[in-house]
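Lab notebook, bench 4. The sequencing result for the construct came back, and we need a structural model before the next group meeting so we can plan mutations. Quick request posted to the team channel:

Model the 3D structure of this chain.
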Amino acid sequence: MKKRFPCQADPLPQRGTSAFHSTAWRLCIPACAAFVHQGVGAHVKWFVPFDLQQRPRDPLAVFTSHEFVLMAACILPLMYCIFWADQRLSNSAFWRAMGATGLLDRWAALSGRMVRIAPDFLRIGLSVFFFALCLYGDVLLTPELKTDLPHVRWMQGTMAVLLLARRSAWLGALGIPVLYALAIAKYGIFHLLDYPIFLGIAAYLFLWSWFGVSMAALADGLLRGLTAITLLWASIEKWGYPEWSFGLLAQRPELAFGFGPEFYMVAAGFVEFSTAYLLVTGRVAGRGASVVLLFFFVSAIIPFGMIDAVGHSGIILVLVVLALGGPNRWAPVGGVAASHGAALRKVLVFACVLATLGAAYSGLHRLAYDFPVIGDRICLVRGSLDAYSPGPADRHASA
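Done. Here's the predicted structure in token form:
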């Protein structure tokens, strides 16, 4: 018998009914509202019990569900419009043709100043972050990654001090992959695929501290790419394990804005996936996506408290850098006359990436947990812990 969860969603209205059209008209409301309170998909692990040995939902079943098809029918045309507009808005010739040369010059000057201070902003922010982890004493990088190693606290405190100075920041940055490796040893690579953003932060700080502006493009590309991968993976996790959030939604039904938890989680995943994809494929749209994500993450602190504030402080700092820093050099630039064909091709690539990551998530989980011999050899084992239950302090802090 198929397991039915307490918060299982009621079926959506059938196509052709007035209720169906009302639901479709309100799609943008749950999509935005859901992500405001959900944040990165991995953060649900900080507040509710989870078990990674449980299989995720079959990607084919997810992609053919009524909720997913309905959201895809709304998101894909929206992405087409965004891609088309981004081609025009990202070309300086378009702004000059519109007579906005002065505005373009002022923005270029502001962006230039932000590029110079962005590394220092991220460096100082990460110093505060590791100082906070040092005070906690039993956390490696995020709240569910616990440790009982006594030297970790002192290592984090040393990293916080090293990151205060630009010349020594590269030494502090080297500590981040060490903490990441310690987390892999305890929790396994599959779990740590939630957090490649930390490797991007480490690479960014190391390259800026050691090489300076000569490696700025590479540093920005690594930071932007690994941040996007983190969010893309988290959105797939929302679809694979929506049950993890059902208990949270049962405790706080106001978060769902009256929508069923199944539809809510599909909408949240789509919003997160779309904005994360724009981080690496858009120029003006990339900045816009950073601002939207930044608003969502900061807003999530209100209902979830200090644990969410500390746990998400790293990605909040990164999104500020991506929103106000230099342009996305890795995104293609379109002409003044935007091509509808190019926008359509980008939508098709977007859909292919979504399907590929969905299949990859399920496939890597099966490789790690259903084939332990293969998983052991490629270090995709579950680690010594594959389940986590938040303690009383965690639940109190999130209240």
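The beta strands are 50-51, 387-388.
Will bring this to the meeting.
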